[in-house]
Amino acid sequence: MTAVDVSAESGIPGDDAPQRSFRRRKRLGARVRTGMLLSYLILIGLALIYIYPFIISIAASFKTDAEATQDALSLIPDTITFAAYERLFGDVPFPLWAGNTVMIATIVTLGRVFFDSLAGYALSRLKFKGRAFVFAAFIGILSVPGVVLLIPRFLILQQLGLYDTYGGMIIPLLSTAAGVFIMKQFFDSIPVSVEEAARIDGAGTFRTFWTIVLPMARPALVTLFILSFQGSWNELGHFIVSRQSPELNTLTTGVASLVSGQLGSGNQFPLQLAAAVLMTIPVAILFFIFQRRIMNTTAGAEKG
Amino acid sequence: MPRTAVRPRRGGGIRRGEARSGWLFVAPAVIITTVFLVIPIMLALWVSVSDWNGFQSPLNPRVNFVGLENYAAITVEDGLDQRNFGTAVRNNFYYVLFVVPLQTIIALLLAVQVNRAALRGKGFFRTAFYFPSVTSTVAIVIVFQFLFTASGAVNAVIGAFGIDGPDWFNDSTGVFHGILSAFGVGAPTSGLLAEPGFLGISGWQWLAGPSVAMSSLIILAIFTTSGTFMLLFLAALQSIGSEIDEASLMDGAGPVRKFFSITLPMLRPTLFTVLTLGLIGSWQVFDQIYVLGGTSAGGTISTPAFLAYRSSFVDLQWGQGAAIAFILFVFIIILTLLQRWALAERGPKKFKQSKVTPKVQGGLR
């Protein structure tokens, strides 16, 4: 905890700074250094436990079935084979699943960003009768646990004739109370003066929102975009209860069906792992591009 | 608030048509939420007190009101349905009992280590621990099945220490039963523990502990959630700052003493949030169980959330499925209200914050 503080201080230009920090370092040095060493050992050990499973999974997706089963730990396959990937694009309708997921995740993400920011803006800025009630209702809905919605969602889709259609898979996901809440919080935090000026100039409410407010809301929009994309890409429950046709399988439901071993005998680890690797890539890319923001979002939630 | 209270009196000019736009703006979100959340829940509530069997509409006139029959069948009437529910509750109970404390401790450990200011490669470690949290459960389950198969990586590693690993995901032995049998204690043939007890499950079965299969899922849960909770702890640790750290070090407090008498008390609000979020989340475990088929390992990985799905969609006992879902619903709402109430005790500011956390996390998972 202190070593950087100490070395940073010694870097500050000043007459006696280096000497003082040297004395301090001597006093604290031994303990800090053992502490650091221990920290590194713990962290490296833990990091290995967290990362190694992914690495050997990638490695195993290039192995033969037999080798993946017998020699799970090795990093480099004896015989590198692309058989698993070829099967994914041959016997298995993986491209179809991927296509469905890409389309659904795109529409759901855009829809959520648009509808949730519209609603969040109205709840933050526009005065209308019933606003307090609508907001309270959204807050109440936040605590509805997602998993108990499975049966209800199926029932309503069936009633509306939307079961087993793209519409039924997409429309219920187009807005979330959480997204509305995030956007409302954000609009509460930015000053109102710019839009006031636009309004005085005679711009309508929607035009003000679209041309002035949304561009200012970029940070919140990006956050909502990431959350929505990752959420809809990884969504499983809703796609279990909103469809049954194989043509409507998404990556999650399709790859899950691989686990139950519909495709012949054996454990087929390379095939399953190849599918897992491929379906993770887009989210992984998004994660690495936006990792700072993603991690700040999660952490920031606690700070408020 | 005062601003908007004064404005409208001064002139309709700027605020003209605001009420109309307001409703127009919230309309899509309100309609989607009403049609696909509020109404469906009402519909499911009706199904849970009806004898609907999945054919035609649950609202057709041949469907009868049966009162609390479905709720009774899973809770008080002896039979298979009651035992299935009891087993699912027991399985989930042990899952929660292990997941919540372990993920909290590990998340805290990760956060404290990563937070060390002097650490190089902070970003790397943070990323490594958080990455499992953003990947799909389906992919993680596949990786875990591969790791925990009988001849898999985990058994290869513990085999190096001379331990003969089990066939993790297919082993229905209760961990506590296993430990007891190592001391020569077997299943009782008579007496209180052998009789069917609460929810039709015998005392001996209640004491089984998580099965080996469920233990693998416990490890999986810790693996995927500790990163998220680590970030919550990290944020809190960063707000504590390094001055206090340094001061305590100068005062001669050892790292262990410092952790327990300074860091931990300061983290109490976050600790509470993490514990309750963990509690709420781990009573909802579904995806993993679904991907694994849910009925393997002698039914020891089934949970109420999965049983609700299975009763309805597979066994076509829609009333019972909906009843299980509602019991779970009420239970989780109570947990959530307890959390909000407890956080509200600390003042209105905290109350506001507590609402953000659950959903941001829900979104991330």
In CATH, the architecture of chain B is Orthogonal Bundle
| Strand proportion of chain B | under 5%
User: Topology as H/E string of chain B?
Assistant: HHHHHHHHHHHHHHHHHH
Mean pLDDT score of chain B? 85
- CATH names the topology of chain B as MetI-like fold
CATH homolog superfamily of chain B:
MetI-like
Morphology of chain A = globular
Main CATH class of the largest domain in chain A = Mainly Alpha
Give the helix level of chain A as a range of percent: over 70%
Structural class of chain B: mainly alpha
Distance between the termini of chain A: 25 Å
The major β-sheet of chain B equals: none
Name the poorly predicted regions of chain B. 1-12, 348-365
How many alpha or pi helices of chain B? 18
CATH architecture of the largest domain in chain A: Orthogonal Bundle
| Distance from first to last alpha carbon of chain B | 35 Å
Structure overview:
The complex is a heterodimer of chains A (304) and B (365). Chain A has 304 residues and is an all-alpha fold. Chain A folds into two domains: 3-84, no CATH class; 87-303, MetI-like (MetI-like fold, Orthogonal Bundle), CATH 1.10.3720. Helix content of chain A is 73%, strand content 0%. Chain A contains 16 helices and no strands. In chain A, helix 5 (94-125) packs antiparallel against helix 12 (218-233) and helix 14 (251-259) packs antiparallel against helix 15. Chain A is globular. Mean pLDDT of chain B is 85; it is low at 1-12 and 348-365. With 365 residues, chain B is mainly α. Chain B has one domain (70-174, 209-364): MetI-like (MetI-like fold, Orthogonal Bundle). Chain B is built from 18 helices and no strands. At the A-B interface, helix 1, helix 2, helix 3, helix 5 and helix 6 of A face helix 1, helix 3, helix 5, helix 6 and helix 7 of B.
